[in-house]
Amino acid sequence: MPAYGNGIQRPLGKAASNEITCSSPRCGVLALLLIVSLVGCARHQANPAIVAQVQLNSDGQKILLSKPAVSRAVPLRPPEGPAFSFIIDSTQPAGRGTTYIGHVEGAAGSSGTVVVIGSAISGTIRIVGRPVYVLATDSSGRSIIQAVDPSKLPPDHPAGYGARPGGRPQRPPGPIGNVGDTCSTDDPTRVTAMILYNTDARGAAGGTNAIESSIYAAIAEANQSYVNSDINMQLELVHVAEVSYTSSGDLLTDVCRLHDAGDGFLDTVQSLRNTYRADLVALIVPDSTSGCGVTYGELVDPTVGCYTGSNHDVVGSPANSYEEGAYHVFGLGCVQTNFTLPHEFGHSGSARHNWACDSTDNSPTHSNHGYYYDSGTAASSWRTILTYPLSSGCGTHGDRVPYFSNPAISYLSHATGTSSGTQPADNHDVLNTTRAILANYRCSAPAPANVWMKDTWGDTGAEPDPDPDIMSASPYVWTRRSADTTMPGFSDRYQHEHQHENPVVHQPAWAYVKLQNGGSAGASGTVKLYYADASTSLAWPAGWTLVGSVPVTASSFATGATKVVQIPWADPPGTGHYCLTARWESPADPIPPETTDIDTNTRNSNNVIWRNLEILSTSTGDAITSFDARPLYGRAFTLEFVTPGPRPYLPSGELAVTLKASGAQLEAKPGSGVDADGPGRYLVRASGGRIDLVLPHTREAHVTVELRFHRTPQLERRAYRVLVNQIEEREANAAPKRVGGMTYDIQP
Question: Cβ(270)–Cβ(277) under 8 Å?
Answer without folding.
Answer: no
